[in-house]
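call fold(seq) -> tokens
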Amino acid sequence: MKKMTEKFLWDAFAGESQAHMKYLIFAEEAEKKGKKNLAKLFRAIAYAEYVHAKNHLRELGGIKDEIANLQAAIDGETFEVEEMYPVYNETAKLQGEKGAERTTNFAMEAEKIHAKMYQEAKEMAEKGEDYKETTIYVCPVCGYTTEDQVLDRCPVCGLPGEKFEKF
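ret:
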């Protein structure tokens, strides 16, 4: 693929991915206000944006076998923990942006756990095994993630454990 086309497809992938997430968040907000049909509209179009992003990623060769996909996930989470979020967090501190400091710290702490989970899944996949059967709990405030048991309180943001999302 020619460089300019590749760059534009990566840009399109980023834009479609952001639109997908933004519209899901908008749907959640509409639902909270009792606007079920508006929420449905946001969700439907969010799905279309997901389809666009998936098509772009596939064309870019970004979807591979499970081990390569897990390694890409590990690499992404590790980059966020070791490089991206520390810099974003320090910049937020330097500029006195308390909200940005909080959200970048929340994300950084969760990404550490995600990298470990993906690493464990990759080790299992390399043995030909599926990921272990487990229940995963995610804090809806900060993204802290834990398996098999929900804690009394989130160790990152303090949210009561009964409010965690269960997967």
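The chain has a mean pLDDT of 98.
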